[in-house]
Design a protein that fits this description.
The complex is a heterodimer of chains A (about 500) and B (about 325). Chain A is of the alpha+beta class and about 500 residues long. Chain A has helices at about 1-5, 10-60, 70-80, 110-120, 145-150, 165-175, 185-235, 250-300, 305-335, 350-365, 385-400, 450-455, 460-470, and strands at about 85-90, 95-100, 110, 125, 130-140, 175-185, 345, 370-375, 380-385, 405-415, 420-425, 475-480, 485-490. In chain A, strands 2-1-6-5-4 form a 5-stranded antiparallel sheet, with helices on both faces. A 5-stranded mixed sheet of chain A has the order 8-10-11-13-12, covered by helices on one side. A two-stranded antiparallel ribbon of chain A has the order 7-9. In chain A, strand 12 and strand 13 form a beta hairpin. The relative contact order of chain A is 0.07. Chain B is an alpha+beta fold. Chain B has 2 domains: about 30-160, no CATH class; about 170-315, no CATH class. In chain B, strands 13, 14, 15, 16 and 17 form a 5-stranded mixed sheet that branches. Chain B has a 4-stranded mixed sheet with strand order 4-5-6-7, with no helix packed on it. The chains are: A alpha+beta (about 500), B alpha+beta (about 325). Chains A and B meet through helix 3, strand 3, helix 4, helix 6 and strand 6 of A and helix 3, strand 10 and strand 13 of B. Strand 3 (about 110) of chain A pairs parallel with strand 10 of chain B.
Chain lengths: ~500, ~325
Amino acid sequence: MKRLFKSLKFHIFMVTFLCTMIPVIAIGVIATPLFKNRTIARNVTMIQSQAQLLTNQIRSTGYIEDPTIDFINAELVALGNAYSGRIVITDSNLKVVKDTYGVDESKTMLWDNAISALKGNQGVYTDDENDVVIVTVPIYSLKDATQTDSNSQVVTDSTTTDGSSIQKDSISNIEGVLVITRSIADIEQEASFVENLVTEICVVLGILMIAVSLFVSRKFSTPTDKFAKRIHELRETGSAHEYNPVYTENADVLDEFDRFREKADTVEESREAFVSNVSHELKTPLASIKVLADSLNSFDGAPIEMYKEFMTDITAEIDRETQIINDLLSLVRLDRTGAALNIESVSLNDLVENMLKRLRPLAEKQGVELVLESFRPVVCDVDEVKFSLALMNLVENGIKYNKENGYVHVTLNSDKSFAYIKVEDSGMGIPDESIPHIFERFYRVDKSHSREIGGTGLGLAIVQEIIALHGGEIKVSSVLDRGTIFDVRMPLSFVAKGEN
Amino acid sequence: MKKYISFILAIVMILSVTLTGCEKNSNSNDTYIVYCLNVNKNGILRDQCDLKTGDTDYMIKYLISEMKHKSKDPDMVRPMGNNVNYQDYNYNERSGSLFLSFDRTYDNLEGVEESLTRACIVLTLLQVPGVKDVSFEVEHEPLKLGTESTTVGAMNEDSFVLSLTGDDSVSQSAVLNLLYPSGDGNGLIFEKKNVSYASNMSLERVVMKYLADKPKSKTATPALSPNVPILNMYVADGVCYLNLGAAFSDGVSEELLKLRVYAIVDSLCQLTRVKRVQISVEGKNLNISTDAQSKEDALYLPDESLILNKDDMGK
């Protein structure tokens, strides 16, 4: 159930339905009473103008003193019939002098509308229970002929708080009250008719709008449904039908999704490649060990020197295997997001010097000259252990892939924000087509010489990881048979990834 | 749900407590109305007092003193306050007539205020059982009002019209002889009804209203449905002109329509001032009478032959 209420279909349906039905219903609800009230009001003005005529006649004939005047009575009856209603006339003491229903004659009328008319106020009262409208009109005496010509209310300008004196004034020029009751059953019928019509329209429209809203909600939620289906298909079967969405937004989502999928696929591919590389690299030393061991075993009566030689080779292979595994472990450790960096403010000059000191024996053995050039003291936020490892890998590479009597130049510089370390060698260089791949794991430029040169193929991958963790950059440029230059740029202040 | 139930229970408990409380009161004192003027002295309001029903003289004296006192409610003005000098009363038990004496200051009251004051005093005292009418005397002479100085004689409830609308207007009562179509379509069934109705309604309209109601007898049906509007209705020279809405004849079989028409005609002709009925629907004459002569002008005479339980009419 909750799923339905949260669904796009439901919301589109409700929006479409309510946006059409609410205004229509609102108009209907407002229109009917408005119509009824206007019609009643119009009738009331007609009654009031009739009443004026009647009051003039009543006044001029002195009907109130003598209620037997035939032609007035005939008019009253005719008017009563025309209104399907009742006409009552009272004198200035509110004593009923004429009632076309004959019911209240001689009684004193104390209805508040009648009392108010005695003060000069015309009144209109709608009695919904009996479907009548009652109009009260004051009958002015001859003394104030001017006032009786207007339909407007008499405003007694006396502001005294003594009620009796106000009454005195009004009674002296009002000689009675005319009460006209008109049946409004016919107006009620018209109003009912309009109301029923409006209700019918609303119902028909409502049913229609349900259908339309269902259709609209379907139409606009289908693309999303199709999308979900497509992803499901891709997940289950790995491929899906071609799908061209109609709406721009959905097309955009589809594009982003496809690109994401491609990236995920690439990541998946490279992971698979890495795994197969790892197993290959791990198997290679083991294979050599096996060969060496087997040959020893199969050789009956092998001399000790041969055993010694083969064991040295086996040991070397085991060392190699250990190195590969260590490198893999450091790579895996670096891989973990949020790998803990032990950042300290370190003098890079000291760090590089120490590192070069450790590598001097190797360099001497290879016949390669190691030079350090520091332009200025550089202090940088680094993880000393990891950064040393990175630099060491770079310099080691420079030494290993070098010629006889070659050199490795390490330059150290800095500006306001960055430290710059350059490792330049006079080695065999890297071919152009290899350059984009050298930081990939297990990538070897020249596979055939890997055993002699040593190494695991993971060195530069590790370097790149460490530099990236520090927020730095590494670039490479190389010329075959001339040499290779690695440029490292490190931010002087460490900013953790994700912060700004 | 639980909250609703406990809320309703609470209300029921409160009601039962208050109602039992009321019960206690009614054993000792009854509530009587004290009619008052409103502050603007242009209308009547009802106030209350508690009084034990019993000795007439005591009740009269009590109510008079209530009408003299100031009301607790600031919007109400007791009728026998400062401006009216009441002197004495005289109650005639045999005739039920009550006479109230005032001095000349009563003449200071004029117009609407006088009418309202008088009505309040009379209506309040008429509540006393045994008081059938009230008369006023000013300086030992009957009260005279108006330009002609006509005597205002004995007054009772019928002397005043409190309102033309609402409960106060239901001042008329009558016994109606009504005819309803029988359920099996064979004829008309007679029913007597005691009714009260507002003075603003004509007796013919009252008849029509009750003809649209469900009759007491289970075998009878209403003569017309309540949603049939009466567009026009008036009586002139013994003829009742009745104009009904289209719903009266729409979708009604001719037999049933004829029965209904005669139910209406016969009922209306029971009134003294109606001898014949002219029926139209939406202004057009409705011609279905049994009498060949009246067929053209839709002027119906009552047809008593249709009445099935004529014997009941004699009672």
